[in-house]
Specification:
Shape: globular
CATH superfamily of the largest domain: Response regulator
Low-confidence stretches: 145-149
Helix content: 40-55%
Structural class: alpha/beta
Protein name: Response regulator transcription factor
Strand content: 5-15%
Number of helices: 10
Amino acid sequence: MSEVVRVLVVDDEALVRHALRAFLSGDDRVTLVGEAADGTEVIDTAKVTKPDVILMDIKMTSVGGVEATRRILEWNPNCRVLALTTFTTEWRALEVLRAGACGYLIKNSTPAQIIDAIIAAHAGDRVVSPEVQERFVRAAVEAGDGQLSDVPALSDRERQIIELIAKGLTNAEIAEDLHYAEGTVKADIRHINQLWGVDNRLQIVLRATELGIISL
């Protein structure tokens, strides 16, 4: 049986915490170990609850999500912070990703998408909502930063994987869609990273868009 992922929810809205509590309790892959209503409570709560993944709101009173993310990762660099917010602007996402968050989700994500993102974050993946990912890509394309020459060849399967990454699918979902083992998908993604000299899924999408392999 796979390890159950320990989750801490940080959000200043009681209704949001209640909703997250309700659907997290219905999935045996995750367990809610604690809640915090403000960024000031995060470290003390994390010390007690020892979460694997923290679902972090961005806009909170006193200490916001970006600063709370910095603080929690200074305390424990191995903790995975997944932003969960209403903001869809790319600069908001960059702010918290640069602070060390491993992902950025929009609150209109489905319960299944949020839980899949928690699992993916715990596994070491970077997860960004498709709406925000598209804004990143458009900003990069408009900036005209791409260099299109000497592009290493990709296999057909690698191209399919890139297209599904751009749609926001997790490794597990890609494996199911293409009927491959999840380990094969992870290996292909590592190969794409090496070929293109990139580090994560978002950079793969940016590069693929610059190269005309996908369009958004």
